[in-house]
Amino acid sequence: MASLKGYIPTLARYLGISPAIIYERQRVLVREGVLEQRPGHGPGSGVEATPSSVALLLIGVLGSENIADCATRVRGIASAVPTLLDVPNRRRKKMLANRQTFGETLAAILAGEHDIYPASCMLALTISRTSYSALFTCNLSIDASTIFFEQTVPDPPIAIEAKILGPTLSQIANDVQGMVQSARALNKDKAKGDAQ
């Protein structure tokens, strides 16, 4: 699998920010145990660019104003559960039965494995920088739908949010899916070579 550090310049270009800002968040998330790092130095070490690690890093970039509270905010936002669903009944029932956290849902969307909403239907992803909440806005055929995730903590009096638009989220999802497919092909070739 590709390294998360190797993907940071591309992610930074999509988001229009410095790679250093994203890398600092990765370092904090590793140090605080939010992201798992493989031991060693060089190829094969570091944090893998998985759907989950990219989702957590994206939450860290969008959901935290500063480095000091990055890990706490990522944990809180990633563990938020769906609380308000403005979606068709069939999909609402499935989402509520599923009870995926926001982090799990975002990772599944990036991996192209979310059984209700593909990345291509996303109009926007909004993550609060002041409360532990996030909002997907989706386009399902004719109607737009929203899925709101939150923790049960009081909102502060001022709300600050960061939003990523659907086309950018789709680009990130395409990259993540490409990295997953490449890793699978590499593992398949390696297994074939080991069997011979």
**Class inferred from helices and paired strands:** alpha+beta
> Please, what is the average pLDDT?
84
Total number of beta strands:
5
One letter per element, helices H and strands E, the order comes to: HHHHEHHEEEEH
Please state roughly what percent of the residues sit in beta strands, choosing from under 5%, 5-15%, 15-25%, 25-35%, 35-45% or over 45%. 15-25%
Number of domains: 1
Distance between the termini: 23 Å
Task: Tell me about this structure.
With 196 residues, this protein is an alpha+beta fold. The protein has one domain (4-190). Helix content is 49%, strand content 17%. The chain contains seven helices and five strands. It has helices spanning 4-15, 19-31, 51-63, 70-78, 89-98, 102-111, 166-195, and strands spanning 81-86, 122-128, 133-140, 143-150, 161-165. Strands 1-4-3-2-5 form a five-stranded antiparallel β-sheet. The chain starts with a helix and ends with a helix.
List the helices and strands and how they pair.
Elements: H1 4-15, H2 19-31, H3 51-63, H4 70-78, E1 81-86, H5 89-98, H6 102-111, E2 122-128, E3 133-140, E4 143-150, E5 161-165, H7 166-195
Antiparallel strand pairs: 1-4, 2-3, 2-5, 3-4
Helix pairs in contact: 1-2, 3-4, 3-6
